[in-house]
Design brief:
By secondary structure, this protein is α/β, with parallel strands linked by helices. About 50% of the residues lie in helices and about 10% in strands.
């Protein structure tokens, strides 16, 4: 028998060999990071196989140009839209045509049905979308992007959503921009989209409501189309609850019923809305959720928490609600006990680097807690949040993470694995996508190690204004 001393040195040698193998396996990536130009790094990350986007608001994920194209195309289905291009002082500033306080909000869109109800003065404030001149169209496109230095959280919450509300009640438009997201994600290696998109509240051109069954049929038809299938992107939906409005508890009950009825499409419920509005505090919903759990099995919760400036206990309260994933989690770092509890799972934090910067939850990335979570074994994955309003994509999130936090190959690929492992997909689909990810990743790695950037010659990376403005990486 071998002595303990011999066994010790054999074990030590094997450990050193394993460590050397790991270092050697990653050295090619470290060498590439050290020498790559920003454009080369972005091309690499664009081509890199990825997993899923688990934190995605579909209405906020529509690039302005996609929204324009889809809105104009809706004439074939009887939908016409007008945009507010001027202010003629037709009414008191405190009220608008919707009974709210957004009269001064330019580039708000309305349907032809709403336009017909306006008085003569207010009609002069609006133009049909197709009649906008080049300057007005440019302003319309920019009105849906958070792209100016003076814009921030208030512009996003108080203006963007009001501008697009009439557009996103059209299920055909929403189905089309869902496809545009699938197409774009597929090209950058994303294979799963778990997007927040409701099934009620949609309307016909005359404003009469569509039933949930009618809307589901529209979504199913678009997802089953040949071009959608060709993207290679699996899609599932979450229902989103606006947490701070009156009657949110009853609304939560309705969303659970919808999730239960359409389980093949709807895999979760999410609570959204500004966390600095105290009327949406998490424990408000604990009695309702306990009631719902008596009735419905296996409804997943992925809830926004910790997307706020102040330290609080919203994340631990959100886990008490039954959440399996935390959206944002920026202030988790202020709760050390909760951080210890979340190490090594089973809960995951959905990280939205670009969103957190543009909405001013961090003033620069040196303040972001993402690397602390990642490197203390709190499960995390990158996601895009409202990518249309940021004018960004998933590859941008990876670029920020690598550039700002010096990710290793293993860290970068684990983010993609987590995005599939912690998804709300059924077990068989999840395992299929995970196995496929490993095959895609191995093929990518072998190609790049063998050919370098020449192996990516067929890659045509697409980036948008965020990367160009913040990093001067302007690919297309």
């Amino acid at each position: 028998m071998l002595s303990r001393r011999v066994l010790f040195f054999v074990g030590l040698a094997m450990s050193c060999l394993a460590a050397t193998t790991i270092q050697a396996a990653e050295k090619w990536f470290e060498d590439f990071k050290a020498t790559a130009t920003p454009q080369q790094m972005y091309t690499f990350l664009y081509a890199l196989p990825k997993g899923g986007d688990l934190h995605n608001h579909l209405a906020g994920a529509i690039l302005s140009e996609w929204m324009w194209d889809a809105a104009i195309a809706q004439k074939s289905k009887g939908y016409s839209y007008y945009a507010k291009t001027s202010i003629q002082n037709c009414r008191d500033y405190g009220t608008d045509e919707f009974g709210g306080d957004k009269y001064l909000l330019l580039f708000r869109n309305i349907t032809a049905t709403t336009y017909a109800r306006l008085g003569d003065c207010e009609k002069k404030e609006y133009k049909p979308l197709e009649a906008l001149d080049a300057h007005e169209k440019s302003a319309w496109l920019n009105s849906m992007r958070l792209d100016a230095k003076f814009e921030g959280r208030n512009e996003f919450f108080d203006a963007h959503w009001d501008r697009i509300q009439a557009l996103i009640t059209n299920p055909y438009l929403v189905a089309e921009v869902l496809y545009r997201n699938m197409e774009a994600f597929g090209k950058e290696g994303v294979v799963y989209l778990e997007t927040q998109n409701g099934v009620d509240g949609y309307a016909r051109p005359d404003g009469t409501p569509l039933s949930t069954d009618e809307t589901i049929a529209i979504f199913r038809e678009r997802l089953a189309a040949k071009d959608a299938k060709a993207t290679g992107v699996e899609v599932r939906f979450q229902n989103a609850l606006l947490r701070f409005v009156p009657g949110a508890e009853e609304r939560l009950k309705q969303l659970y019923a919808i999730n239960d009825k359409y389980r093949d499409l709807y895999v979760g419920v999410n609570m959204v809305g500004r966390e600095d509005n105290d009327k949406g505090y998490p424990l408000r919903f604990l009695p309702t959720l306990r009631e719902l759990r008596h009735k419905y099995p296996d409804i997943n919760l992925s809830i926004h928490a910790g997307e706020v400036d102040e330290p609080n206990y919203h994340i631990r309260d959100t886990l008490l609600l039954g959440a399996k994933r935390i959206g944002h989690g920026v202030n988790l770092i202020t709760d050390p006990d909760m951080m210890r509890m979340m190490r090594n799972g089973p809960y995951m934090v959905e990280i939205n680097l670009i969103s957190n910067l543009l909405l001013e939850y961090v003033s620069d990335y040196s303040q972001h807690p993402f690397p602390e979570y990642l490197r203390t074994d709190i499960p995390v994955a990158l996601s895009t949040d409202d990518r249309g309003m940021w004018d960004s994509n998933m590859s941008d999130e990876y670029f920020v993470a690598v550039r700002e936090f010096n990710l290793s190959w293993e860290e970068m690929t684990q983010l993609a694995r987590n995005s599939l492992k912690y998804s709300f997909l059924d077990a068989s689909t999840k395992q299929r996508l995970l196995a496929n990810y490993e095959k895609r990743l191995q093929a990518f790695k072998q190609t790049f190690q063998g050919k370098g950037m020449n192996g990516l010659s067929a890659t045509t990376p697409v980036s948008y204004s965020f990367l160009c403005k913040h990093y001067q990486v302007c690919m297309q």
